[in-house]
Amino acid sequence: MCSFSGLEFDKLKDGAHLDLVGSYKPSMRECDDEAIRRGRVFVDNEVAKVEAGELVGAFERGVIKEDEVEGDLAELIKGVKSGRKDGNEITVFVSVGSAVVDLLSAQLAYETITAKP
Questions:
Q1: What is the CATH classification number for the domain harbouring 109?
Q2: Residue 27 lies in a domain
């Protein structure tokens, strides 16, 4: 069972964007079902569909179907999928992270710290 104490959809303004990056387990949530139902949802990678609590729970409760997730980060970057369609649309980005991104971030931090002035 997942308890919820996160963001509620009725608190969002038109055109808002949600970055949900903290719920890396199915039992965790950062927003309510309505934000997932009414937002245009993207993921960092396909793993988010089976690990992020917002999505796992939404699929189980019939809030949205897995194929209603608009796309992933690679598709957005490559232009395969478009981002926001208009200024009023609410977009949602769900990220569970990846080891590659963590490694690259650590490398960048190390290079920045050890760079000679």
A1: 3.40.50.720
A2: yes
- Rounded to whole angstroms, the Cα distance separating 69 from 13 reads 21
Q: Is residue 102 part of a domain?
A: yes
Query: Is pTM beyond 0.85 here?
Result: no
pLDDT of amino acid 4: 46
Residue 3 lies in a domain: no
Q: Which residue has the higher pLDDT, 28 or 71?
A: 71
> 46-77 burial string, b = 16+ CB within 10 Å, else e?
eebbebbbbbbbbbeeebbeeeebbbbbeebe
CB of 56 closer than 8 Å to CB of 36: no
Residue 24, Cα to own-chain centre: how many angstroms? Answer: 10
The structure tokens listed for 13 are 């303004």
Q: What's the pLDDT at 52?
A: 93
Please return the burial class of 80, using the count of CB atoms within 10 Å of its CB with bins 0-12, 13-18 and 19+: exposed
The mean predicted confidence, pLDDT, of the chain is 88
